[in-house]
Specification:
about 300 residues, 12 helices, 4-stranded parallel sheet, binds pyridoxal-5'-phosphate, alpha/beta, 6-stranded mixed sheet, Rossmann fold
Length: about 300
């Protein structure tokens, strides 16, 4: 899975950017690896390495039925010759959706649990029960955020990215944001767009920074007003924006994470948030595998 990888950066051109004197580039993590897409590649890489170093042959993780994390973990485990178990929230519905059927095809063993039991996913007693059932495994938490994940996401930015004054990323659990924060260079500002409804994410991020003692040369700001109703919720305005973005720049976005971030970023651009001459880097964290399931679920077409 691990090396080599490339994350091409693409420059976007648009009259609005020219008029405002702004530079905007997209770092395409969606293209980072043929099998393991997006930020999940970075979140998994040291975890799988560590699992192997500990002599584990099996990894276990948690996720919802359309989870990018489940999909990426199944891919990464297969590439690394590790067995994978996915504990999926909610009842099994057949036929399996495209995310889960793909994970199963890659050899991930799927195990469905009801939503109430799923909430115990971090309790030691519950984990011990899973070990009795499945044998010894290396545990990766839901969403994949832990210290090794942050070590991985702190490698997303390279020295070529020091030219940017602003870095923009979507936020779910915050593991990606935390790693980006730790790797900012001097005076860089990290802008985060939360996919989830609520201000709680501000505390989650500062807790991650404290827990992993992340120091940064830059600073950050988080926007909590681009959730479009909450996680996995959407509005027509967002779908229209995703199509507009695709038609303008030829880059597909997902409605759960990257679409919301790009919407927020574009609104900030149009409302004069960025000083003239700013160079902005937007991180495309991937997630496009979920678009098929989104269309199946809602009937809404996406690029
Ligand atoms: C998981 C995911 C995120 C959120 O990453 P966190 O580290 O949980 O904040 C953002 N974008 C995409 C496409 C994802 O799959």
């Amino acid at each position: 899975m691990i090396l080599p990888y490339t994350t091409p950066t693409e420059s976007l051109s648009h009259p609005t950017l020219t008029n405002l004197g702004l530079g905007l580039e997209v770092k395409r993590l969606d293209l980072v690896h043929p099998e393991v897409s997006g930020n999940k590649f970075f979140k998994l890489k040291y975890n799988l390495e560590h699992a192997k170093n500990e002599g584990k042959s099996k990894i276990l993780t948690f996720g919802g039925a359309f989870s990018n994390h489940i999909y990426a973990t199944a891919e990464a485990a297969k590439t690394e010759n590790l067995e994978a178990i996915g504990i999926i929230r909610g009842e099994k519905t057949e036929p399996l959706n495209t995310t889960l059927s793909h994970a199963e095809r890659l050899g991930m063993q799927l195990h469905f649990i009801d939503r109430t039991t799923y909430r115990k996913k971090t309790e030691p007693g519950f984990i011990a029960g899973l070990k009795e059932k499945f044998g010894d495994f290396y545990l990766i938490p839901e969403g994949g955020t832990n210290g090794l994940a942050i070590q991985g996401t702190s490698e997303i930015l390279g020295s070529e990215d020091q030219q940017f004054s602003f870095i923009c990323s979507s936020i779910g659990t915050g593991g990606t944001f935390a790693g980006l924060y730790a790797s900012l260079s001097e005076k860089q500002i990290l802008l985060g767009f939360s996919s989830l409804k609520g201000e709680f994410i501000l505390n989650e991020i500062s807790d991650l920074i404290d827990e992993y003692q992340l120091a940064s040369q830059g600073s950050y700001e988080i926007f909590t007003n681009y959730h479009f109703g909450g996680y996995a919720k959407h509005k027509q305005e967002l779908i229209d924006f995703i199509w507009w973005f695709y038609e303008s720049f030829g880059i597909a976005l997902d409605p759960i994470y990257t679409g919301k971030m790009a919407f927020g970023l574009w609104e900030l651009i149009c409302t004069g948030y960025f000083p003239k001459g700013s160079k902005i880097l937007m991180i495309h964290t991937g997630g496009l595998q979920g678009n098929v399931g989104f269309t199946d679920r809602t009937g809404i077409m996406l690029p």
